[in-house]
Amino acid sequence: MAFNIAIDGPAGAGKSTIAKAFAQRLSYIYVDTGAMYRAMALYLLREGISAEDEGGIEEACERVDISLVHEDGVQKVLLNGEDVSSLIRSEEVGNMASKSAQNGKVREKLVELQRQLAARTDVVMDGRDIGTCVLPKADVKIYLTASVHTRAVRRYKEYLDKGMEADLARIEEDIEKRDHQDMNREISPLKRAADAVLLDSSDLTIEEVLDTMMEICKNKKI
Ligand code: CDP
Ligand code: CDP
To answer: Which NCBIfam families does this entry report, sorted A to Z (predicted)?
Structure first.
């Protein structure tokens, strides 16, 4: 039986950082479901299909092929066989992902892929609906969060580290907007599963979060 660890939470909570490092500690596969929504978004942008075009999206879902492959512990996202791991990281793709992730057909297709991956391998999977919808029977569920201000400061530092200019107040506004969109959408909104452990990382370092996660898993006898 494959062990499944689900990590959900809002943008900037540290899901991908923590899920990736935790998967490495346990020698599990890290599954970044956000990357799948981003790959789908890139496809729609390339095909000129808008997030409101229900028919266009349905057809696109039928012909697109999105997959995750892991080479030496590094995840690659393939869109119709092309490695788009770097291309999907733009702001434009992120915004389209957030919009197209509200479409039922898109979610149906990607959730199916995510479940297939988790059924055959031990995974740490992060996203918005993993504990509530994708893997309702996950062995461990974590709802990772942090205050809006902390998350904004984290994103702000990431921009500065890349030598880019950034406006903290604007980032804070964007995060609030994205939270609202993810938490209030009709299908699979972001919310803490009843059996998820709440982990607030506002005052914790990455190491401290990882140690807390290890304790949670030990209690579950993983
Ligand atoms: O995936 P998600 O949007 O939840 O967050 P992320 O892309 O992992 O970004 C989180 C940022 O906060 C990264 O720059 C981390 O280095 C930093 N960070 C963290 O993840 N956890 C902490 N306890 C402290 C800082
Ligand atoms: O920018 P950030 O790292 O926070 O987002 P992401 O994890 O790369 O996901 C991009 C977008 O896909 C998010 O804004 C979500 O709306 C959506 N998403 C989702 O709906 N369900 C998931 N399981 C993962 C991502």
So the answer is: cmk
Contact 117, 29 (CB under 8 A): yes
Does residue 17 have a known ligand-binding role? yes
CATH 3.40.190.290 assigned to domain 33-121? The reply is no
The closest-lying atom of ligand 2 relative to the alpha carbon of residue 101 is 20
Do 112 and 43 contact (CB within 8 A), yes or no? Answer: no
Q: Write down the ipTM of this complex.
A: 0.96
189 annotated binding-site participant = no
Quote the CATH superfamily of domain 1-28+123-217.
P-loop containing nucleotide triphosphate hydrolases (3.40.50.300)
Ligand 1 pocket by C-beta < 6 Å: which residues? 9, 11-18, 154, 158, 201, 204-206, 209
pLDDT in tens, 147-169: 999 999 999 999 999 998 999 99
118 is annotated as contributing to ligand binding = no
